[in-house]
Amino acid sequence: MRPDLRQWYCIWAHPQYEFIAEQLLIDKGFTTFLPTVKSALSGASKPLFPRYLFTRFDMDVDPWRTIYRTVGVRTVLSADDKPLAIPDPAIDRIKAVIQELTAPREQVIIRKGAKVEILIGLYKGRHGICQWSSRRKIGLLMELLNQDVQLIVERHNVELV
Questions:
Q1: Would 30 disulfide with which of 25, 40, 95, 144, CB 3.0-4.6 Å?
Q2: What residues form DSSP beta bridges with 76?
Q3: Is 43 left (phi over 0), alpha (psi -120 to 50) or beta?
Q4: Cβ(22)–Cβ(32) under 8 Å?
Q5: How far is residue 41's CA from residue 116's CA, in Å, rounded to a whole number?
């Protein structure tokens, strides 16, 4: 029996065609992963990385060249005409980030002057002082490179310290 040598590859889709390309790839028998998050305004799912999705295949066994003829697919990210494999840990990390982003959090009242910690993203673990808050966003004042900087973050991405 042949071992499973499938790897993840990155698909670049046409604008606004990520969901269509994903479904058509699934219909062709490919395993796919389209990282999505819910829009804060509409609640609809939207791609975390617009125009990009991932598919898993074995270049020696699967009919992967049919991907290029799939509606919505622009190309498979490649180098020297060979698709570039994405390591499994990279895909696992993206899945973990999505889980972090979508985990339900209790809405705590955050008042002006409260000290908060940013939970995800570039400033994860950094502290700031709440300058204002709304239902969805918080204005923070934080020190970066010895300067006070104003930052607006989504409310569910911070917690009181």
A1: 25
A2: 11
A3: left
A4: yes
A5: 23
- What CATH number does the domain containing 149 carry? 2.30.30
List of residues 6+ apart from 118 with CB closer than 8 A? 124, 125, 126, 127, 128, 140, 153, 157, 158
Beta bridge partner(s), residue 127? 117
Which pair of tokens denotes residue 146? 């010895």
In a domain, 109, yes or no: no
Q: Read off the amino acid at residue 127.
A: H
pLDDT tens by residue, 14-73:
999 999 999 999 999 999 999 998 876 677 899 999 999 999 999 999 999 999 999 999
pTM of the model: 0.68
Instruction: Please tell me the distance from the alpha carbon of residue 67 to that of residue 26, in angstroms, as a whole number.
Output: 11
Q: Can you list the alpha helix ranges (DSSP code H) found in the chain?
A: 18-27, 88-102
User: One-letter amino acid identity for 90?
Assistant: A
